[in-house]
């Protein structure tokens, strides 16, 4: 059986969400952060050398990185291409792949800097001086891409929406989403999906 190693309060929740959208049978192993440092427990390093989450295990394969996990699961289990275009449509597949990896590849870093600055409880002009314009750049870009569409690539929910939804939710938690009401509505739509609600029940963020 497929196993997912899920760290509470973190982005591995959208890997759990993907499993629920695919309606797969899986085992969830949950880990709690150190309440003082908010870091992952050392037990995760027994699964993967980086000690990060999410990590999935299946048939001897141990796979980390959310984008790679999404690609693997959709390639293996989404044979009807409900959540990603077929590779035969190379242009659509390339655009989808770009948005799949964009969330963690580009958007996460400035949000992490904002989170660090806020947690410090003191002004952080260096962090904010870099991070704030980057947040505005990226969320302006995401908002423009969404436009009047329901989902990030149009009228169909795709694998790219998992990561983008998580970043939009993180921005909301950090008080950065007010200028982007369409993204707040996008997040609300996605979090209302039954599979997302089931993911929360199994592995609350």
From TrEMBL:
SUPFAM superfamilies, per database record: GST C-terminal domain-like (SSF47616), Thioredoxin-like (SSF52833)
UniProt-listed CDD domains: GST_N_GTT1_like (cd03046)
One Pfam family per UniProt: GST_N
Domain of life: Bacteria
Organism this protein belongs to: Candidatus Litorirhabdus singularis
The GST C-terminal domain, residue ranges: 89-205
InterPro entries referenced in this protein's UniProt entry, alphabetically: Glutathione-S-Trfase_C-like, Glutathione-S-Trfase_C_sf, Glutathione_S-Trfase, Glutathione_S-Trfase_N, Thioredoxin-like_sf
Record domain GST N-terminal: where: 1-81
Name under which the protein is recorded: Glutathione S-transferase family protein
């Amino acid at each position: 059986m497929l196993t997912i190693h899920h760290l509470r309060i973190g982005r591995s929740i959208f890997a759990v969400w993907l499993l629920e959208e695919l309606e797969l049978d899986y085992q969830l192993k949950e880990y709690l952060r150190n309440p003082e440092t908010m870091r992952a427990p050392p037990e995760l390093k027994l699964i993967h050398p980086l000690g990060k989450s999410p990590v999935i295990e299946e048939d001897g394969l141990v796979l980390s990185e959310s984008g790679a996990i999404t690609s693997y699961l959709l390639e293996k289990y989404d044979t009807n291409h409900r959540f990603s275009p077929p590779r035969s449509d190379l242009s659509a597949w390339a655009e989808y792949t770009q948005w799949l990896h964009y969330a963690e590849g580009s958007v996460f870093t400035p949000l992490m800097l904002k989170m660090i600055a806020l947690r410090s409880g003191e002004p952080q002009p260096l962090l904010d001086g870099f991070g704030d314009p980057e947040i505005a750049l990226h969320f302006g870009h995401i908002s423009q891409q969404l436009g009047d569409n329901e989902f990030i690539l149009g009228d169909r929910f795709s694998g790219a929406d998992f990561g983008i939804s998580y970043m939009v939710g993180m921005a909301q938690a950090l008080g950065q989403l007010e200028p982007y009401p369409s993204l707040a509505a996008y997040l609300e739509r996605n979090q209302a999906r039954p599979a997302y609600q089931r993911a929360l029940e199994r592995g609350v963020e």
